[in-house]
Amino acid sequence: MMFKIVSFIILSTTMSWAQNVDYNSIILPDGIEDIGIGEKLVRLAWKNYPANEVAQREVLKAKHNIGVAGSNWLNSITISGNLNEFNIDPAAAPNNNNFFPRYNIGIRMPLGIFMETPRKIKIAKEDYKIAELNLNQMKLTLRAEVLKRYQNYLSAKEVLKIDSEAENDAYNSYLLIEKQFQSGEVNVSQFMQTSKIYNDQRAKRTISEANYAVSIIEIEELVGVRLQDVR
Predict the structure, then answer these.
(1) What is d(CA 21, CA 139) in angstroms, rounded to the nearest whole number?
(2) How far apart are CA 166 and CA 174, in angstroms?
(3) H or E element, residue 105
(4) What is the pLDDT of residues 184-205, one digit of tens each?
(5) Radius of gyration of the chain (CA)
(6) Are strands 78-83 and 103-108 parallel, antiparallel or unpaired?
(7) d(Cα 137, Cα 58) in Å, to the nearest integer?
């Protein structure tokens, strides 16, 4: 009994903390300007990345299809009619007698539309909901991907800075050892060791420089503009 009570309290507490996601606030609107570069990049990516517009258009198409499904049953109705030929030319009627009915009108409506139409509307509504969910998923995925790439950019930028400073220090040490080697103050082994450290640091800086450049390219792939133009 006590276990059931505890379980109920835990479940109730968990449910009370549950929050519905406001998908309209995942991408900040244009009116909000006091935001960081990361959020600005997310907003730019949402505007410029073609796949996002495709997802938005899928929602609009699914919404229109609900109306199409609701009115499509009209295409199944057939109206036919005919006019008594003696009404057109009364003189042709024998003994000038009128023949009835003067005209006939008929409506043909398949009974199946009363069952089929509600099902089609229900399917169209489900397609609309699916399109909305796909759009919301796109917002979540895009925001996470943009911010992840932005963090990679910041990290790559910092690593490049560190490696560049280390390369500069290694170069200064190399110049000093080179001068000492030329004056005979250090032996070949010491000179070669310092030279290797400098070359290794140059290679490391080259790799970090490439990673930094790639991190910029990966952001620009999503936002559609040069990163340096984002303010």
Answers:
(1) 12
(2) 12
(3) strand 103-108
(4) 998 999 999 999 999 999 999 9
(5) 38
(6) antiparallel
(7) 13
pLDDT by residue (tens digit) across 73-120? 555 556 555 555 545 555 555 555 554 555 556 566 665 566 677 788
The count of other CB atoms within 10 Å of the CB of residue 68 is 12
Residue in the block written with tokens 């198409």: 61
Q: Rounded to a whole number, what is the largest CA-CA distance in the chain?
A: 143
75's enclosing H/E stretch is none
Would you state the torsion angle of the CA atoms of residues 84, 88, 91, 94, taken in this order, to the nearest 10 degrees?
A: -10
Q: Which residue has the tokens 């952001």?
A: 219
CATH classification code of 35-229:
1.20.1600.10
In residues, how long is the chain?
231
Residues 6+ apart with CB under 8 A from 43: 27, 28, 30
Instruction: Tell me which H or E stretch contains 82.
Output: strand 78-83
Q: How far apart are CA 78 and CA 107, in angstroms?
A: 6
| Structure tokens given for 62 | 């699914």
Domain ranges of the chain: 35-229
Closest CA to 42 of 231, 229, 219, 210: 219
Cα(55)–Cα(50) distance, integer angstroms: 9
